[in-house]
Design goal:
Chain lengths: ~750, ~190
Amino acid sequence: MNVPSDLPSPLAKTLSLSHDSLKAIFATDILLDGSFGKEWLVIDDTGLQVYALSPSGEPVIRFQAPWLAIKAPQTESLVGGGALLLTLDGHTREILRHSNACQKEFSRVSKYLTEYVAYLKDKAEGKSPEIPVLAADRGVRLRCPHCNLLLPEGTQVCPACLHKGKVILRLAGYLRPYWVEALWIILLMFAGLILNLIPPYLTRPLVDQVLVPQNSASTPHQRLVLLGWLVFGLLVAQILGTGATIFRSRILVRLGALLSHDLRLKLYSHLQFMSIRFFEKRPVGAMLSRVVQDTDSLEEVLVEGLQIFVGQLLTLIGIGVILLMMNWKLALLILIPVPICLWISNLCMPRLIGLWRRSWHFRSRLSTSVTESLSGSRVVKAFAREEAEIKRFSGHSIDVQESNRIAHQSIQTFFPMLWLLMSAGSLLVWYVGGRSIIGGDMTLGVMMTFLAYLGMFYGPLNYLTRLADYLARSLAAAERVFEILDSDPDVKEDPGAVALRPMEGRVEFVNVTFGYESHRPVLKNISLSVAPGEMIGLVGQSGAGKSTTMNLICRFYDVNEGEIRIDGIDLRRIKQTDLRSQIGVVLQDTFLFNGTIAENIAFARPDASREDILAAAKAANAHDFIVSKPDGYDTLVGERGQSLSGGERQRVAIARAILHNPRILILDEATASVDTDTEKQIQEAIARLIKGRTTFAIAHRLSTLRNANRLVVLKNGALLEVGTHAELLAKEGEFHRLVNLQKETSSIMAVGK
Amino acid sequence: MNTSPAAPTIVRTDPISPSIPPSPETTMIRYFDPSHLSFFMAGATLRLTVADEYSCLQVSVHRMFPLTHPDQYFSIRDGAGNELGVLRSLNALDPNGRECVLLALTRRYMAAEVRKIIRARERFGIVEWEVETHRGVCRFSTRDLRDNIRRLSDRHFVIPDVEGNRYDIPDLAALDTQSQAWLLQHL
Ligand SMILES: Nc1ncnc2c1ncn2[C@@H]1O[C@H](COP(=O)(O)OP(=O)(O)O)[C@@H](O)[C@H]1O
Ligand SMILES: [Mg+2]
């Protein structure tokens, strides 16, 4: 039974007391006057009630109607929501309203109410109809049970409840294959650190025993020898230190390059398996920058992160310990500004991160607009919109420039100030230490050594404050890369998916309802059964849902309700590669890849022999035009196949489909936009192609569908008529109307003979 | 604005396409003279009488530019969704009819107009908003806001939430500074 999980307890109490015959409860989120608020529709054996809460929290019935009074329940679709309407005493009344969030629920409700009213009527007339059931709820948006955050599509993992450290661990996981390199880096870093610690340590004897000796026991000669040794020691330490740095950097660069390739490949492979819906929602340019740029930034985080985390942290700890040992009082002075700095960092960081995100967004928008306008360059030129495009680009570019400027300027202001604050500690050291030297409590050598170490101490500290900025930039990149890696394809492969090969080609639609956005169904309750080898023509006005039907057969999208079966198996339970390898599509706007004609024909079967390709091209009536090109089958088709004419592209696509040899063939307006002569050739090619295959064809010219075994007429997403050409004409319904319309418009083409 | 009445504004693009029937009604837009129209409510439905022509028991009024020009160009449609004609503005309607049409419009267009942003918290690419609108306080979540927001001008924004609901900010500058700051932080 449907009961909202957040039903207020007084209402729950009232309902459980007075209703043993409760059927379902649905919550709305908007009141009748359009303001935000909650009301509840209660369906029980007696009829409908709408409950509201009084200001004191008591449930009150705002509306009720017994079943017998209810006529014609329906939902009205509004912009941003909908309303449930009933006819009572001959008047249409609006009984509740809801936003888009509840659209799916209330379309279920209205369907159920309609069926239930019909059921009661039938029963009253003495028939024995089936009791309707409320359709099961599907596909609710998931929220995290702990923090109520909306979960990313296709995952159950709440990114907020996932520990932050886990993200870092996860990043570190990418390093695992390169643990040898990583280990070397860490070892060399360690060695470098120790070598770096030596020179300041030698400063102390250098000052106290050689330059400004405290006791004049040593002779100038002894002092010179010691000086020699100390300088030699410094030289060795520096040479070794530099060697360690060179080796470390070389390994680091290698590691970075490897990692970056790994990430790019992983991301790209993942993208290849994402659904059409995923790409529809995301501009190509944005995806481009993720694959190309963000993976690079991510690599940078990993590599730099390794350096900063391990190297600088070690240095920081090592020097901190030395400083404390040398003079703990002075050492503590240095630390005074640290908590203040951390606090300020924490305060300002989210803003800085926001600035980076913003700048990233503008950059991705820029690359989106470039990809778009370059791929549409013909249209741009044809309409002489170059200037306008430049202006648009300039606008976007200015946004990038501005957001970058703001981000950089903020950072360039923030960090030096933080640095200033932090180095206030060293001024304290000068002052307090200076007083100790004047007072004779400390030697100059100790002070110099201390200051030298102090300088080295601030290095990593500075690094660590920059780390925040660093992490901000790169975690933003990591977020975007992970977002893709984490989003499961919304058209998922069932774990128990069955192999289907070779398929017979029987296609059944069972009460299929589908909408691109779930609150606006495009196909409504379609049922249809197609025998293997049958050719079905889909007819209807543009926007009726013909292409959508095709998309569902290819499983580019999953249905919202009902199911599609092939050979009796639910589409969602068939292995996707099996499915797609046996479905062929020829679309109106044919997409060819930049390559040769031969490569394009063999796209689905790269192992096809040259003779296979020739045969396919011949059957597609493409052979002759291909051979007449100077480069024959080696002709480059250009990006998207632009250097071929529309009809040529179409025939190459048909050849591609023929070679693919699918069991189910989909032709979506495959012959639109070509001249009659070419169309005739394409028609012939298609006639050869469809032999023995289950075929779904959409054609602008209804005459094209004369060969179809049956025609299916769609109107506004509903299945209106099914039958043979002759049957539908005789019926004088929608098809008849469409045919007549075409007859009127075209005196050249004989239609419907 | 285009004032020449009944200029043919739909041109048939494909002479053989069944989707654009060549009947004269659909190739010309009929602009109504507001003084000939009388609208009134009957229950939840809007009725229309066109003087000396016909009455329609159930009409709906659609904005043609709901985002950019919400108060100009209205399509008047019958119960089956066929366009009866176009109204350029509501101003010249009789006050009562105007009232009825406005009522129908507020009912149909449910976008809430944001008066104040109380809170906007971003977590993992999802921003959770709490806003005060002309229809009361509400909360909603947006995802990938920067990609999905509609910028109709420098100051006019429409925020779509994950459910497909819309929240309108007609003039950013008219919001208080805290609200502006919340918004700009997420754009
Ligand atoms: N990718 C999409 N996202 C949202 N709506 C879509 C999409 N593709 C098509 N539609 C809408 O779905 C409806 C049916 O479209 P379609 O099946 O392409 O019609 P046709 O019968 O002309 O092939 C149309 O109203 C169209 O605007
Ligand atoms: Mg189509």
